[in-house]
Write a structure and sequence with these properties.
alpha/beta, TIM Barrel, eight-stranded parallel β-sheet, 42% helix
Length: 255
């Protein structure tokens, strides 16, 4: 099983880290600020089945300069285990970063992902209309990408799929009040479907209230398989193949 989005440097214990690394075939760990990008690369280089994506979260772009974008490029080129750019995008949930700065650095990271021919991992929270607008204005995306921890509606999903993106769902699809998300899950094409944990955030319902970890992805897999009326092993195979198709630098085969 592949967890396409986790923050391994934020896990609460070394035990959680090792349990997850030993129980999953592959984990993509995300570095999304000036310090975490190095932590993500270090963890990826330490463990064979861990790969890294590096970028700047919209909450962490204050004070960034063009030199920081150039540094992302250097790190991606110098490290074979960097497989994507991001998470990058827009977040209007909290008034932390001016919208104009969010737009500017989202577009800079889009351009970098395209220049490097790497997938783009997109963060969008309370900003779905603007996210789609920017993505459409900067299309196409030859290396594709992920709308991570998808929180939009069916029309947004369809527009993103039309642009070639994969749609990734986290443990919040298991929450009792997440009917709208489950409707999107039902309508998402299986060849564009991914699963993630976003650890240590968004623990699935059975582990809610505790810090999340990548090994909890099996609860989300089981829930999604039951909801979609698909055999659990078959859904795992589908999502893993999708991830391998997207992240071309992952060593093949996983299974």
């Amino acid at each position: 099983m592949i967890d396409t989005h986790a923050h391994l440097d934020m896990l609460k214990t070394e035990e959680d880290l090792m349990e997850s690394i030993n129980s999953l075939d592959c984990i993509i760990t995300i570095g999304c600020d000036k310090e975490e990008i190095y932590k993500a690369i270090d963890i990826a280089n330490k463990y064979e089945n861990v790969y890294a994506s590096i970028g700047y979260h919209p909450y962490d772009i204050k004070g960034l300069t063009e030199e920081d974008i150039k540094q992302l490029k250097r790190l991606a080129l110098e490290n074979e285990k960097v497989v994507a750019i991001g998470e990058a995008g827009l977040d209007y949930y909290r008034d932390i970063t001016p919208k104009n700065l969010q737009w500017e650095f989202f577009e800079k990271q889009i351009a970098l992902a395209k220049e490097l021919n790497l997938p783009l991992i997109v963060h969008s929270r309370s900003a779905n209309e603007d996210t789609v607008k920017i993505l459409q204005e900067n299309a196409p995306y030859p290396a594709s990408g992920i709308i991570h921890c998808f929180g939009g509606d069916i029309p947004m999903m369809e527009k993103c799929v039309d642009m070639g993106f994969y749609i990734s769902f986290a443990g919040n699809i298991t929450y009792p009040k997440a009917d709208n998300l489950r409707e999107v899950l039902k309508r998402t094409p299986l060849d564009r479907l991914l699963l993630e944990t976003d650890s240590p955030f968004l623990s699935p319902q059975k582990k809610r209230g505790k810090p999340n970890k990548p090994s909890n992805i099996f609860y989300t897999l089981e829930f999604a398989a039951d909801f979609l009326n698909i055999d659990k092993e078959e859904l795992e195979k589908i999502t893993d193949q999708n991830a391998q198709r997207l992240f071309k630098k992952i060593k093949q085969p996983i299974h």
